[in-house]
Amino acid sequence: MSAIAIITARGGSKRIPKKNIKEFCDKPIIAYSIEAALKSGIFDEVMVSTDSEEIAEIAEKYGAKVPFFRSSENAGDFASTADVIAEVLECYAREGKTFEYTCCIYPTAPFVTAKKLQDALQKMIDEDADSLMPVVSFSFPPQRGMVIRDGKLSYMFPENAMKRSQDLETMYHDCGQFYFLKTDEFLKEKKLVLNKATAMEMSELEVQDIDNESDWNLAELKYRLSVLKEKIWIR
User: Fold this and answer.
1) Which of 37, 83, 204, 230 could be disulfide-bonded to 5 (CB atoms 3.0-4.6 Å)?
2) pLDDT tens digits for 36-60?
3) Is the Cβ–Cβ distance between 178 and 120 less than 8 Å?
4) What sections of the chain are H helices per DSSP?
């Protein structure tokens, strides 16, 4: 069995300048993804896909490989994660290197750990899944969501207005941390949720979208809390 970890880190970040290498709890945030992948011991290759020499330098400092730079086509605002993964796999294939499993890890995912990556791969193998996505449940049922149209507030789904939360099916969303894929199946479909997809459930304390400075500060608080809880548990 062979596996590759692809950490996707382009240089252009508009909402948080240099987001992928910004200091997060005393080290560049991308370092957490690199270190988790390396420490897991499940990858034959841990690489960073980037268009930035500055990011490449930091990535190599923390132990990742940057064997080539991302194309300009896949460094723009409209390139998808699937596009970037496919490009990396095609570049390796031209060098005669292929992998049974591919794991895409985002560079702003400090809550990813070596154990989570190990558990994710084992879950895929045990369930014979084609892909795995970490998910977290919505804190409030989306089925009872509301909209404002023409200045008036109304339920998006009126049939659920009077239903109890516990009577509605639990819904989840992508954690935005990593994706495990069977490489052959991914290359056929070029998407992150394949036909035989499975999930790894996370808690709210392990998940934080980081789109602005407030998100960043909240992520640091959650991370410090998780480290503190681990230290207490070890004692």
Assistant:
1) 37
2) 999 999 999 999 999 999 999 999 9
3) yes
4) 30-40, 53-61, 81-94, 114-127, 183-189, 213-234
